[in-house]
UniProtKB/TrEMBL annotation:
One of its GO terms (cellular component) is endoplasmic reticulum. It comes from Salarias fasciatus (Jewelled blenny). The gene is LOC115404035. Belongs to the CREC family. GO terms for molecular function: calcium ion binding. Residues 18-38 are annotated as: Disordered. Its main location: endoplasmic reticulum. InterPro entries: EF-hand-dom_pair, EF_Hand_1_Ca_BS, EF_hand_dom. This is Calumenin-A-like.
């Protein structure tokens, strides 16, 4: 039960700590790999970015021939429009999918819990009945917050349902459960953030609302230095038009920093393999530069030799 367990965890952490702490609303992208990105040493970072950690490790056990053969199948998957060219957008979509594998795996694990009728889709009613059974069984014992959360989740579910058929496939349910990971869900995350913080319900975030979200002073407590730093952040960086409040665009820029690691990696891989410099990759170009994308026994042995030399 993903959502109930998560809500319980958050409640326990918050209620178990009486000391004010700095809340972080910013959605930080995880690095594509924990390895250092140093192509002069190896392409290990690129391998993990392109394949994921586990799959990248598996490729180092393959012969170069088998590594290329499997890479060829991957290229065919990446080429979504089947025009025999891999564009930056297609490469970005692939890397993003690989990087989200852990959340796709989580959804896969719980899929049968949601998809009660086994039709391969999850309706809002199926999700609601499973996740909020405690509320539905005893609505009188539930708080107004429970009803508000259900209403908000239904709104988010409709945004994730991109084809509007009122049913979520696995990609759509993943976007619903992890909206911060998907570009088309960012606006709803912004809306939910504003609703959480906007005490006077004017649709904007004032300085007091912004500070009140990260700091609640205790009686007689001296204000921490970081609180004043947050005021400066609000005035100097968050409030871009200097009107004393944050609108939706300013909240978007705040909680989703403008660094696209996936795009940077896609551009890097194209730069490494794009022989004719047309900004796209053929299957042949990718296979000719296979060691940039995937490892093999040879590349693994070569890296070991380089380390031995030092």
């Amino acid at each position: 039960m993903i959502r109930p367990l998560l809500m319980c965890f958050v409640f326990c952490v918050v209620s178990g700590s009486s000391k004010p702490t700095k809340k972080d609303r910013v959605h930080h992208d995880e690095p594509l790999s924990p390895l250092e990105h140093n192509d002069q040493e190896s392409f290990d970072f690129d391998h993990e970015a392109f394949l994921g950690h586990d799959e990248a490790g598996a490729f180092t056990e393959l012969s170069p021939e088998e590594s290329k053969r499997r890479l060829g199948f991957i290229v065919e998957k990446i080429d979504a429009d089947e025009n025999d060219l891999v564009t930056e957008e297609e490469l970005k979509a692939w890397i993003a999918h690989v990087q989200r594998k852990h959340i796709y795996d989580t959804v896969e694990t719980h899929w049968k819990d949601f998809d009660k009728n086994g039709d391969g889709r999850v309706s809002w009613d199926e999700y609601r009945d499973f996740t909020y059974s405690h509320f539905l069984e005893d609505p009188k014992g539930a708080s107004s917050d429970d009803a508000r959360i259900i209403e908000r989740d239904e709104r988010r579910f409709k945004v994730a349902d991109r084809n509007g058929d009122q049913l979520a496939d696995k990609d759509e349910l993943t976007a619903f459960l992890h909206p911060e990971e998907f570009g088309h869900m960012k606006d709803i995350v912004v809306q939910e953030t504003i609703e959480d913080m906007d005490k006077n319900k004017d649709g904007f975030l004032s300085l007091d609302e912004y500070i009140g979200d990260v700091y609640s002073p205790e009686l007689g407590e001296e204000e921490p230095e970081w609180v004043d730093q947050e005021r400066s952040q609000f005035a100097e960086h968050r409030d871009q038009n200097k009107d004393g409040k944050l609108d939706q665009k300013e909240v978007l820029d705040w909680i989703f920093p403008d660094v696209d690691h996936v795009a940077l990696e896609a551009q890097h891989l194209i730069h490494e393999a794009d022989v004719d410099q047309d900004g796209k990759l053929t299957k042949e170009e990718i296979l000719d530069s296979y060691s940039v994308f995937v490892g093999s026994q040879v590349t693994n042995f070569g890296e070991a030799l380089r380390h031995d030399e030092f």
